[in-house]
Amino acid sequence: MVMFHGHKVIVVRIRKEDFFIGVVLVAIALFGRTVFHIAPNVEFVTASALLAGVFIKSRYYWLVPLTTMVLSDAIIGNTLIFVFTWSAFLLPAFLGRYIKQWKESPFKLMFSATTGGVFFSLLFFLWTNFGVWLLGWYPPTLAGLLQSYIMALPFLRLNLLGNLVIVPSMFLIVLCTRSLVVSIARSVQHTSWVSPFLAK
Prior knowledge:
By secondary structure, this protein is mainly alpha-helical. The protein has helices spanning 16-33, 45-55, 63-76, 82-88, 91-99, 106-134, 142-151, 153-188, and strands spanning 2-5, 8-11.
């Protein structure tokens, strides 16, 4: 990956495995925000960001949610609230980095990821609706701020329900796939093609 900093060109080296995982996670989250849009605030970005934090070794794991938001907003459009939504979706990636310590304990990992998804839904609700109020969509008073939160409660409910289903489901799929590939690799005693998700 090439990054530009002033007049300097910085070459960032990313492992092929990390790049593969990142592309897959961005594709899933992007598809969920554009084509397969289930309901308002029901999204795959949270789960993808958590998975990125757990399974991508590179320190640029946070690019998964950021890339997803940039690409999806370029397709569906956005307003100045993007400052709050983009910054909010970085959090589950950081949470994923924290729960990575339970990577080899499937139950703890899934529980931690689901809990993180719920926590993020609440934080996303507080942060983005504060942004809505700050950008002038409601009166610049305490009553206006309260109104912005009250009006957004239905969206909070949908986001919570979505993360309670999507986050554990995606982690379960990844962990089951990981376990299956390990078993197959061991049975044929050949591990060179093993999924990048197997890397500790």
